[in-house]
Amino acid sequence: MSPLQDHPDAPASPLILDPSGGANQVRVRAYNERLVLSLVRRHGALSKADIARRSGLSAQTVSVIMRALEKDGLLSRGEPVRGRVGQPSIPMRLNPDAVLSFGVKIGRRSADLVLMDFVGQIRMQLHQTYPYPLPQDILSFVTSGIQELESRLSGEERARLAGLGVAAPFELWNWAEEVGAPEGAMDVWRGFDLQSEIATRVPYAVHMQNDATSACGAELVFGVGPHYPDFVYFFIGSFIGGGIVLNSSIFVGRTGTAGALGPLPVRGRNGENRQLLEIASIFVLENLLRDYGFDPRPLWYSADNWIDFGEPLEIWIQDTAKALAQAIVASASVIDFSAAVIDGGFPDWVRERIVRATTKAAAELDLQGVVMPEIIEGAVGPQARAIGGASLPIFARYLIDQNILFKEIEHAEGH
Question: What is the C-alpha separation between 297 and 109, in angstroms, rounded?
Fold first, then answer.
């Protein structure tokens, strides 16, 4: 099962009414179709009776909607479930082939382009590394990459493309010195409208979101979100970023930058005050490897294929863990999160070591008066930012706000 699909053992819920009113009128049929698709997406498979119970729609309305969605190829039938009184129940699932979407992650060392299907599986992907990102290089990668992936699709598959979602850091020109860019080279990003520039070059609707917010959204919808209504999220990329989830909704704040987390003040190895991003970011490991005589470029070739660099990697993991532990305690002193989720652009075994070391480091801090969250690994992985981007067009065209579903379920399960 894809990490994007919901856990099959998710507890069954009683009646769940759509808070916006899952009405039966023809004029809101499009919304009701989105509601049905969203419920099926979250639970993996649902029968007509299950959907009627969860949505508050009449059985007749659900039957009409599901027939239409099946006819359009968006839903497919599973094997009948027998053993109950009456007719066997037929679970309906999202058809993975029904919708495809492009997602782009733009980082300070590399970019990724993915083609994602309706259930979150990455079908194809391209990767490019660079010393630092420049607009023309990014535009070339996105346009040529889309053309390359399109060339591998049939005409029927291309007709199912929902659009393009872009996940990129805000203010890419910041921290240019830390990534080794020449002075002033990154200033070209100031005032550059990446979304509109891409939109003029591709034949799809283009959506854009902050990269860390995209990763947090992917974790909320496709990862551990169904099990933790409130969590603080850390994604360790070239620079660490993150997000805040409250009541199963991403909280972005007044300016949209809430949960950035990188600027959080922490103590360094020698007790000096530092920002979290100055310790718990991959660019720090890059510099450390260089100091030890290693070529750091393999860090950016593939997030899944790091080698164990030995001592410098262990030093970075321990420093990162101690800084993360402080950041988690600081976060938990403000909001009693149920979990602190850690993920990043590295293999699972690195993530596991960071989480284990962070848990140990947190236990050594003064926790008086702090209700500590559970410190856990993210479930989506290195492509969380691209996956979050690719989900934007799919939600825009076929699904309702995922937060509504989580709030419905949380409310129902509390009864």
Answer: 10
Would you give the DSSP letter of residue 99? Answer: -
Structure tokens of 265?
Answer: 């003040």
C-beta pairs of 299-308 under 8 Å, 24+ apart in sequence: 299/109, 300/109, 300/110, 300/129, 301/127, 301/129, 302/127, 303/345, 303/346, 303/347, 303/382, 303/383, 304/347, 304/382, 305/347, 306/346, 306/347, 306/350
End-to-end CA distance of the chain: 30
Task: For residue 409, count CB atoms less than 10 angstroms from its CB and return exposed for 0-12, middle for 13-18, buried for 19 or more.
Answer: buried
Nearest in space to 282 (alpha carbons), one of 267, 264, 269, 301: 301
The token pair that represents 372 in the structure block: 């500590």
Instruction: State residue 12's pLDDT score.
Output: 34
**Which 3 state secondary structure label does DSSP give 293?**
coil
Q: Letter for the amino acid at 283?
A: F
* pLDDT of 82: 66
**What's the pLDDT at 399?**
86
- The pairing of strands 110-117 and 100-106 is antiparallel
| pTM (predicted TM-score) | 0.85
Mean pLDDT, the chain, integer: 88
Q: Tokens at residue 272, please?
A: 């000096």
Contacts 24+ apart (CB under 8 A), 346-352: 346/236, 346/282, 346/303, 346/306, 346/382, 347/303, 347/304, 347/305, 347/306, 347/382, 348/377, 348/381, 350/306, 350/313, 350/317, 351/377, 351/378, 352/377
Ordered structural domains, the chain, with CATH: 26-95 (1.10.10.10), 100-212+385-397 (3.30.420.40), 224-379 (3.30.420.40)
Determine contact, residues 36/29, Cβ cutoff 8 Å: no
C-beta separation of 273 from 323 below 8 A: no
Q: Given this model, what pLDDT does residue 4 score?
A: 39
Q: What is the pLDDT of residue 403?
A: 53
Q: Percent of the chain beyond pLDDT 70?
A: 88
Q: Give the ranges where 236-383 is alpha helix by DSSP (H).
A: 282-291, 298-301, 311-334, 348-363
The parts of the chain modelled with pLDDT lower than 70 are 1-29, 82-88, 401-415
- Can you name the residues that pair with 46 across neighbouring β-strands? 92
- Size of the chain, expressed as the number of residues it contains: 415
